[in-house]
Amino acid sequence: MFNNQQIMDLPKHSDISFKPLADKALLHTQLSSLLFYIPLIGALIAVCYFNEAFANNAQTYLLIGMPILVAVSMAYNIISVRLRGFAVRNHDIAFKKGVIWQQVTVLPLARVQHMEIHQGPIERKLSLASIKLFSAGGVSADLQISGLTHDDCKNMRQFVQNYRQDDATTQAALVDE
């Protein structure tokens, strides 16, 4: 007989104790932003150099606007990185992010099909890495956590692999019964 009881007391995701990202995650984010802004500013300088009419019209706006844009972006990065966190629990991994629109993603470990650890050149210098977790049927990562130490990524990957092996062993035991 099928029984489907209604749950009255839902668990609260606010009870999850999130661990902050690595100490150097903010530095990585700021350097990545600067790597975007420096070529942009260089291109604008080149346009102003070769196009005097544009330079005369836009010079004031660029001299005021670009520093403000860079400062606001850097301040946003500080807030954003400080609000991110992750939690590895017995049966799932949770990740929170967002400043204005906050998002908590919880991925059950039983759904994880494969994982990737990624390190770009800046991440490698800072001993940071990103982990991508993929579930069944997806082309893109269902969960990507950037700003972790490389050791945290390797430990998380090992934990998920051990969970999958334990889950497979349990499933095999149930089939044998």
Automatic annotation (TrEMBL):
Keywords: Membrane, Transmembrane, Transmembrane helix
Record Pfam families: bPH_2
Residue stretches making up the YdbS-like PH domain: 85-143
Transmembrane segments: 34-54, 60-79
InterPro entries, per database record: YdbS-like_PH
Keyword check for ATP-binding: no
Name of the protein: PH domain-containing protein
